[in-house]
Amino acid sequence: MRLILLGAPGAGKGTQANFIKEKYNIPQISTGDMLRAAIKEGSELGLAAKKVMDAGGLVSDDIMIGLVKNRLQEADCANGYLFDGFPRTIAQADAMKDAGINVDYVLEIDVPDASIIERMDGRRSHPGSGRVYHVKFNPPKVDGVDDITGEPLIQRDDDKAETVEKRLDVYHNQTKVLLGYYNDWAKSGLPGAPKYRRIAGVGPVEQIRDSAFAALAE
Question: CA of 193: how far to CAs of 6, 38, 64, 87, in Å?
Fold first, then answer.
């Protein structure tokens, strides 16, 4: 199973990625993790990436594709792989295609913006343990305090509505075009074209998981 997981920030991709990884025994390919590992190893690509990042720049698509190709040659990718958060742009998608990095499925988790904002803005966390609550869906026993320690809960800046709205704007402006890109490629019937599947990302986690598994079995 080789697939790309697409969806807005807060759509629940990370949760579903864990289910998919376990079911198909495949690794999740995170470009952030790859960059950190390559820099730590001091590989040629890692040193090139570090130089760019130290100067405050964005790592080029050539370097990213090189890292991806190296990563896919590792033993744990024998059964396939799952991309989450890559590609982010049409240029990266084209570069993947040109490099012969194949995928069987592109799975989109579709969640309305309003649901994402409600989901993220309602989160409250306990800094000491990492326990997470939600003011509506999973409230603490006493408003604003951790069930176990009684210590105050916080709202992370990343979860505040205005921050989430900005991240969604970036997604709609930059990354959402990939949905059309992969959908059109899937419909083309060309050799190597992936299958494109869209599932609703609202409702119980298990229901979304079952929808994902059903979509990947078609």
Answer: 16, 30, 22, 16
Least Cα distance to 202 among 136, 77, 113 occurs for 113
Residue 96 has pLDDT above 90, yes or no: yes
DSSP code, position 157: G
**Residues annotated as part of the active site:** 13, 88, 123, 156, 167
In tens, the pLDDT along 116-158 reads 999 999 999 999 999 999 999 999 999 999 999 999 999 999 8
Reported as half-sphere exposure (CB side, CA atoms, 13 A), residue 69 has a value of 15
Query: Any bridge partners for residue 199, and if so which?
Result: 109
- The candidate with the shortest Cα–Cα distance to 6, out of 193, 139, 198, is 198
- Which tokens in the block code for residue 215? 């979509």
Crossing angle of the two packed helices 205-216 and 13-24, in degrees rounded to 10 = 50
Which residues, 6 or more positions from 130, have their beta carbon under 8 angstroms from its beta carbon? none
Whether 212 and 107 have beta carbons less than 8 Å apart is answered as yes
The first and second tokens of residue 182, run together, are 């992969």
**pTM for this one?**
0.85
Please state whether the peptide bond connecting residue 152 to the residue before it is cis, i.e. omega within 30 degrees of 0: no
- Cα 31 from chain centre: 10
**Backbone phi, psi, residue 106, to 5°:** -115, 120
